[in-house]
EF-hand domain-containing protein
Amino acid sequence: MPAPAQVGVRVVRVRRKQAELSKNARLRKRLQKLRESSRKLLGIHKVAPEPTFDDKLDALFARYDTDHNNLIDADELVKLLEHFIPPHVRRGKRPGWPSLADAHFILGEVDIDGDEQTISRDELRAAVNLWRRLIAETTPSQSDQLKMHGRMGFCCEVM
């Protein structure tokens, strides 16, 4: 038969274990309530879907069409194209880039209706895609910029 001191120690251990289990049970109940309430919230307040590229183009068109004629002219296009310059390129951006010449080139390339002075909402996607392609072709990658480490002078930049 165990000694009375050993029985007392076992009783204390059992009571501690019961208290711990009781505490865990309360925590489980709280966690269950939190899960239920979060499910209710998610059911009521659904997360908005990520806007599509067309939604973003619509927002940009509305933002940069400053004269509200539903057409983007060369000056407005320059400001809009700056939005699509990647951040690592934007930091070292030459002043005047994109230029009015860039905008007129893009206007001439993507113009469907033949006016070559403005682009409509339908032509904006082609203009943005052309601008992205031009940036990708004329801008060294970040790794190339690191390899060059400032060795590329102004005369070597693509104009």
Summary: The first strand starts at residue 72 and ends at 73.
